[in-house]
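User: What would this chain look like folded?
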Amino acid sequence: MTTTMALAAALPSIEVKAVIAIAAGALLLGLAIGRATRRASGPPPAPHVPPATLPAAVAEAIARGDKIGAIKEYRAATGCGLKDAKDVVDDLMRPR
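Assistant: Here's the prediction, encoded as structure tokens.
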């Protein structure tokens, strides 16, 4: 067998290369669509709680400057997630 024939037998045909290229493109497109969908379908943003309806324990922790304590108390009072509670407490502690 000559070197050219061996090389030709070792390389995939044009059709196989096309199938591989199409499959790789479809995979990348699927990843991009999945990533865009995950970004768009997150949980709703945390509601802003006016200070009048804020639980007393949360207001006291904020007054002490205890951010972590305020987040814990807010989560216990509302049952919301960590990120939502942090966002609300950050907003309440932000100087106006």
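The CA atoms of residues 37 and 77 lie 32 Å apart. If you want, I can go into more detail on any region.
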